Amino acid sequence: MDHPDESAYPLASRANTKVHWIPRGTLATHVLSLAVPPRTFLFAAGEADALRPLRP
């Protein structure tokens, strides 16, 4: 993390929702290593170059 407050961003909690903070620069590697069940929705936000490996 570049700043200690990065993972302290306040988010409202919702039923059946999990939030995982991923360290900068490791998003694509982390997501591609997940065993994602069918019909699971993933949302990722970041710089375009960081997300490019996740696009079909």
Keywords:
single chain; 56 residues; mainly alpha; 2 helices; globular
Written description of the protein model:
By secondary structure, the chain is mainly α. It is built from two helices and no strands. The radius of gyration is 13 Å and the shape is globular. The termini are far apart. The model has no long low-confidence stretch (mean pLDDT 79).
Describe the structure concisely for a colleague.
The chain has helices spanning 27-32, 48-51. The termini are far apart. The chain contains two helices and no strands.
Task: Please indicate the percent range of residues in DSSP E strands (runs of 2 or more).
Answer: under 5%
Distance between the termini: 28 Å
Shape: globular
Q: What is the gyration radius calculated from CA atoms? A: 13 Å
Main β-sheet, in a few words?
A: none
Relative helix content: 10-25%
Structural category: mainly alpha
